[in-house]
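(Fold this chain)
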Amino acid sequence: MNNEHEIIIDEVVKLLQGGSAHISLKGALKGLPAEARGATPDKLPYSIWQLVEHIRIAQWDMVQFCLNANHKSPKWPDDYWPKESSPADDEAWENSLKQIDNDLTEFIELVKKEDIYKKLPHGNGQTILREALQIADHNAYHISEIIVIRRLQDNY
């Protein structure tokens, strides 16, 4: 791996992990009271729980798309957004966060070992780099919404 490739990989990993210009999901959720997970602020269509679950589902889908040529994506948009505004319990909340972390770790390992510029043979032009940028952009967008909801709830 040449130096330029190492630089881009390092920057993509930093972008995926959050920080720098974007807060991480863990940072956005730090200190969130359990009762605030399912609260839906006035005139907003979703709760923090729904955003977290949406991040989990969408990220999982993009990671699986890169790893498995036979992966079938959920139905858009119905299967990407949970209907329930609150997690069933603390275990559901923790499991969602754990899967987000595990999938991101798995994807970062893929970024580090594969040719990020090569088109995925089962796609229609997608590369690992494109999927990495999409994951980072998507997550940052919804994490910022979590911050806004927390500010509207006066708990950030």
Observations:
- The helical segments are 3-17, 25-29, 48-67, 90-113, 128-152.
